[in-house]
Design brief:
- The structure is a single chain.
- A hairpin with a 2-residue loop joins strand 9 and strand 10.
- The protein is built from 3 helices and 15 strands.
- It is about 5% helix and about 25% strand.
- The strands form 4 sheets. A 6-stranded parallel sheet has the order 1-3-5-11-13-15, with no helix packed on it. Strands 2-4-6-12-14 form a 5-stranded parallel sheet, with no helix packed on it.
Length: about 290
């Protein structure tokens, strides 16, 4: 959606940032103290909101936003990956909660798999808006944990109308049911139940976080992803699998249409399989993609 006459206002009021971090190219070897940090295996993790004049992410390089925001007075060119994906479960251990920043309290933890004789799986953590995480699967005798819920669906008019303009993402607040609330999206998946022989259920995946880009233009030839974390399979015997975390939110505000051949991914995390007669978990819900031309 384009907002006539908004572009000049957006540029003048600093919605595209201050440009104080200059022209940045993330090449997998150059360090940027205090902003993008030192890369580890071609992966950069943001340390704060960044204020670039231009930003280039090279092919083969991943930028983890850590729920901070990207501002660029010029073009963001993504030839690699921009990610705030949810954390996958491992065994009975749930995918953890992502750190919050810039007012984005996003990416909730999954529930742990049930342990001991007939242990129930734990519930995934809920969010104020978004979609539900996937439920865990029952073991032969252990109950499944439920996926974290969303008080207000991200597809509802109360959310989509607010996020069509950038101001809620700039201040980190949305208005829900008459109350101001922080960004809380990416519910966790529920844990799977154990069985009568103490075989643990699979943990639930963590929810995806937020990628927020405010730029004059965006050329995406790579991938932008906030996919939910995968649920884990039951550990053995007849244990249930964990549910997937829900996808997070990709929020893109530019002064011209997004170009490029790349992809965006807001999918929920994959289900964890049950073993034996244990039930499969459920995949996480799909997240939210907002692309607004100001």
């Amino acid at each position: 959606m384009a907002f006539p006459g908004f572009g000049s206002i957006a540029s003048q009021s600093g919605i595209c940032g201050l440009g104080t971090d200059g022209a940045v190219t993330l090449d997998g070897s150059t360090s940027y103290a205090g902003s993008f940090g030192t890369p580890a295996g071609n992966v950069y993790t943001m340390l704060r909101d960044v204020q670039c004049s231009t930003l280039v992410i090279n092919a083969g390089v991943t930028l983890k936003t850590a729920n901070f925001r990207i501002f660029a007075q010029g073009t963001v060119t993504n030839n690699g990956t921009i990610s705030q994906a949810g954390l996958a479960a491992a065994g009975s251990t749930a995918g953890g909660q992502l750190s919050g920043a810039s007012g984005f309290a996003a990416g909730r933890a999954g529930g742990g798999g049930g342990t001991g004789v007939s242990g129930p799986g734990s519930n995934g953590s809920s969010v104020s808006w978004g979609t539900a995480g996937g439920g865990g699967g029952t073991g032969t005798s252990g109950a499944a944990g439920t996926g974290g819920t969303a008080t207000v669906l991200s597809s509802s008019a109360s959310v989509t109308s607010q996020l069509a303009i950038p101001f809620p993402a700039l201040i980190g607040l949305v208005s829900l049911n008459g109350n101001q609330d922080t960004f809380q999206t990416g519910a966790g998946g529920g844990g799977g139940g154990s069985d009568a022989s103490s075989n643990a259920g699979g943990g639930g995946g963590g929810g995806g976080g937020v990628v927020a880009i405010f730029a004059a233009s965006l050329v995406n030839n790579g991938s932008i992803t906030v996919i939910g974390g995968n649920g884990a399979a039951g550990t053995a015997g007849n244990a249930g699998g964990g549910g997937g975390g829900s996808g997070g939110a990709i929020l893109i505000y530019t002064l011209s249409a997004v170009t490029g051949t790349g992809t965006t991914n807001i999918a929920g995390g994959a289900l964890g399989a049950g073993v034996g007669t244990g039930a499969n978990g459920v995949a996480g819900g799909t997240g939210l993609l907002v692309t607004s031309v100001l």
